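Entry 12.
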Amino acid sequence: MYDLIPVVVLATAILADWRFGDLPNSLHPVVAMGNWIAWTRRQVLKSQNRRNRFVGGLASLLLGIVVLAGIGWSLERLTRETPFVIAVLIQAAVLKCTFSIRSLGAASNSVASALHNSDLTLARQQLAYHLVSRDTSQLDESSIAAAAVESVAENTSDSFIAPLIYFVIAGLPGALVYRYVNTCDAMLGYRTPELEWLGKSAARTDDFLNLIPSRVTAMLMLIVGPASKTMHGCSINRSAAISIWLRDCRLTASPNAGHPMSAAAGLLGVVLEKHDHYRLGQGQSLPTVASIDAVNSLLYRTANAGSFLAITWLLFGPSLIRGSLYP
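Predicted 3D structure (tokens):
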């Protein structure tokens, strides 16, 4: 029965996310990760030396990886000595904290709701609070919609598909380590004079860990997106979307973010542009509030497909591998 723990843990964590969303910040482990990273940032930035900042950032990254991998491994080992239901509940509670779909959808819906009510000020505030780190004070409706679509598309990978993949590969240690590295990158991985050397190791590690998930996410989007001819008024053209993905996926500074974003741009038939950084989907329409509704549908479709594939692999993948190794 205990061989089924990963399957039931994953299914339980996914259902918990759909039903309950995220824990309060005061109880959320990712907030604790963020507090540790913020403390490290304050300490390391006391030095003006680039080498010290790089070494400090690397040491913080490696220490967090070792600690969280150890926590994940220990939980898996210790709960094997507990009743099945308790083992599942403990592991699922921890795994749930490494991903979020309901909260991501709710965040983008808050932006869409403000735009539906023609309240640009509130839409900018919601966008800045929930989804992006850029200045939103001067964005018009189309730019707000574009930023929301970009964030949802990118976070479909970062906030769900990637931790899913690393749980399948390496269990709780894999999911926890991925979430820590991604949080480090989100807080430190900027090319500013202050953070460039401090966050360089986190940014490069995050780039490496997301090489496969970002491309898997884009392909899943392209598979599930054309399930209907329209999504919230956005026409779906799979062949055009594939062309735009292949053409524009490398236009972003990140080697990974451009994959889900360009796939989404192609599927929704819109241009996604961050001024002086990239322009994805050149030649298509400007995004509207309907584009946010459509990308949310794409988020849920992609999450469902990823969940199905992950659970299927956990059920049948190991036996297939054993069968191929020992015919």
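Annotation: The chain is about 70% helix and 5% strand. The first helix runs from residue 5 to 20.
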